[in-house]
Amino acid sequence: MLGAATATYRVQYSEDDYSLSPATDDHPPTFYINPLRLPESTDNQVAASFSYSSKINTDTAKFSRLIDGFYNTACQTDWAAQPLLGMPYFTVELGSLKDIDAIDITAGFYYPAEASGGGRKFDFSDTFSVLASDDGENYRYICSELTKFTLGSGETLQVDKSSFGENYQASHLRLIIEEAGKIEYGSGRWAVSIVEFAVWENLELIGEAKLLGREDGGYCTVVGDVLTDTTKSWATSEQVGRYVVDKVGNVFLVTSSTPTTITLDGEPFAGQYAIFTRKSVNNEVYDVNGLLDKAGDKLHKITEVNKYLTTQEKVDDRAELILREDIKNHTKATISLFDGDFNIGQTVELTDPWTKNINDVENVFIEAISFSDRGGELTVGKYN
Prior knowledge:
By secondary structure, the protein is mainly β. It has 4 domains: 5-53, no CATH class; 57-200, Galactose-binding domain-like (Jelly Rolls, Sandwich), CATH 2.60.120.260; 210-295, no CATH class; 332-382. It is 7% helix and 39% strand. The protein has 3 helices and 26 strands. It has helices at residues 161-164, 291-295, 312-329, and strands spanning 5-6, 18-21, 30-33, 53-54, 75-79, 87-99, 102-107, 125-133, 139-141, 149-152, 156-160, 169-179, 182-183, 189-200, 210-212, 216-223, 226-228, 243-245, 251-257, 261-264, 271-276, 284-286, 332-337, 347-351, 361-372, 375-382. The protein has a 6-stranded antiparallel barrel. Strands 5, 7, 11, 13 and 14 form a 5-stranded antiparallel β-sheet that branches. Strands 6, 8, 9, 10 and 12 form a 5-stranded antiparallel β-sheet that branches. The longest helix has 18 residues, at 312-329. It is elongated.
């Protein structure tokens, strides 16, 4: 669409000093001044106060293309004369103060509306700035990379918080046309074409999951809500207020204890148990098997680009699931066998190979099966 530049001023005349020819289909209205009022045109000066404006005659619906996420659409504006230097092109309202991690701007190509078939395109190169505001009224420059930068057809500018700083916030972002370059088409055109203006928040999400270290643990028998471990010698009431996790993951509050027994607010399963000083919180996993006792603190870090992990909750949940799988990798055992019909993934009951206690039966799942001339092996893991 073509823009228009206008200037207006006012001069007072009497009725005898001018005449007006009305508009026709072929001519606009014409204003005639009596030449007697300007006898020496070279000696006369005309003074006027006026305002100058450069219009953007672009369908407002096209501005939605800036944020539609598609790279085959663009918002284009063109002028028959160079637009004002430093002219605002559009403003993006973010709704409220937002953390900004990155800004991406992609330029398109200039397609003259009157070009044959609409398919002819031209390159252009313009100079822009991106300004930020916290209230929609007072704007500031963000950083040098977003100040008077040049963007040509098909180019993308990507700027992140390494340039404008951590914890940068704004509620409005405005693209300024500092200077539009001339396009050699017809008598000359000046154009802007933006394919996408992307603002990123939470570009980097960090999820953490931790093992909650146990205070004590072992193997027990259970009668009702009383857990008994005859290998222990606790001080009376030592475990009151702590939490017990049984072999299937149930959590119980300790209400009383003796040197060898613990009374709980529920009925646990007999077998492996662990005692913790507190309940786990979000993304904490009970270290029932005492891995921290053996391996100590270890950091396992994964960095990846994943289009599905779009929220902090999803990233935290993913970290917890990875930790739970890692625990399984540390609770595997290899069992020799001579015969049997087994399938990978099958759940079987097994006398606990970790304690060799024939009275302690565990549910395990088969992860791998291998056979040779000397027999076979099952790799099994415990449920945690």
